[in-house]
Design goal:
By secondary structure, the protein is an alpha/beta fold. The protein has one domain: Alpha-Beta Barrel (TIM Barrel), CATH 3.20.20. Helices cover 33% and strands 19% of the residues. An eight-stranded parallel β-sheet has the order 1-8-7-6-5-4-3-2. Helix 4 links the parallel strand 4 and strand 5. Helix 1 crosses helix 8 and helix 6 crosses helix 8. The radius of gyration is 16 Å and the shape is globular. The two termini are 16 Å apart. The mean pLDDT is 94.
C-alpha cells in the first residue's frame, strides 16, 4: 500500500480555506483529515458540521473525520451526512467499538479506531481487523506545542504485525520532517500532518519533501 500524506485542515487558514484545499489538491493530496473536538473529551474546540459541509462542497477528496468526542454515537449520522468518508472514534470512550463500526458501515462510511499515547495498544488490537483505519496519536489531542511521543512507534508496529493488507495504519500529532520517516518505517501508511505542511510557504514543495522522507525510509 502506498504512503499517503494526510493534511490536517485544522492547520489551514479558515479565512482562505478553499484556497488551501486547492493548494493541497495541486500538491497531490489524496485525502484530507478533519479533527472534530468537543471541548469535553479534549480541552479544545475545533469546528462542526457546517464547516464539514462547506469542505465537502469544496472538494471531492475523501474526508477522514476524526471524532474527538465523548459521545461519538450521537454524531455519526450528522457527520456522515455532512460528507465524512471515514469516521474514527476513540477507544477511550468506546472500549468495545464494534457496534459503532456497524453503524458507520450502515451509513456508508469507513470506520476507524483511535488511541491516545497513554492507552496501551492491547486495547486496540482486538479490533484492528474489524475496521478500515487504525489511528495512533503521537501527542495528546487538544493540546498544542507537544513533542512527538515515541511510544506511538511501538504501537504502530504492533498494529502492523496483525493488520490485514487493506487496513490503513495512520498516525497523527507531531508528524513532521524529523518524525515522518520513523512513523513510516514503523508501518504507518497514512501520515497526518498539519503545520509541518500547511505552515510552509510552498505547500507543493513541502508535500513532495515529506512524501520523499516517508517513502525512502525502509520498514523496520
Amino acid at each position: 500500500m502506498s504512503i499517503l500524506i494526510n493534511p490536517s485542515l485544522l492547520a489551514a487558514d479558515f479565512a482562505h480555506l478553499e484556497r488551501d484545499i486547492r493548494q493541497l489538491e495541486d500538491a497531490g493530496a489524496e485525502i484530507l483529515h478533519l479533527d472534530i473536538m468537543d471541548g469535553h473529551f479534549v480541552p479544545n474546540l475545533s469546528f462542526g458540521i457546517p464547516v464539514v459541509e462547506a469542505i465537502r462542497r469544496t472538494t471531492h477528496l475523501p474526508l477522514d473525520v476524526h471524532l474527538m468526542l465523548s459521545e461519538p454515537e450521537k454524531y455519526l449520522e450528522p457527520f456522515r451526512k455532512a460528507g465524512a468518508d471515514y469516521l474514527s472514534v476513540h477507544i477511550e470512550v468506546a472500549p468495545d467499538p464494534r457496534k459503532l463500526f456497524g453503524k458507520i458501515r450502515q451509513l456508508g462510511a469507513v470506520p476507524g479506531i483511535v488511541s491516545n499515547p497513554p492507552t496501551p495498544v492491547e486495547a486496540v488490537l482486538p479490533f484492528v481487523n474489524d475496521c478500515g483505519l487504525v489511528l495512533t496519536m503521537g501527542v495528546m489531542p487538544g493540546f498544542g506545542g507537544q513533542s512527538f511521543d515515541t511510544r506511538a512507534l511501538g504501537k504502530i508496529r504492533a498494529v502492523k504485525e496483525i493488520a490485514k493488507p487493506d487496513v490503513l495504519i495512520s498516525v497523527d500529532g507531531g508528524v513532521g520532517e524529523q518524525t515522518i520517516g520513523a512513523c513510516a518505517a514503523a508501518g504507518a501508511n497514512v501520515l497526518v500532518t498539519g503545520t509541518a505542511l500547511l505552515g510552509k510557504p510552498d505547500v507543493k514543495k513541502q508535500f513532495a519533501y515529506l512524501t520523499e522522507l516517508a517513502v525512502r525510509t525502509p520498514f523496520v
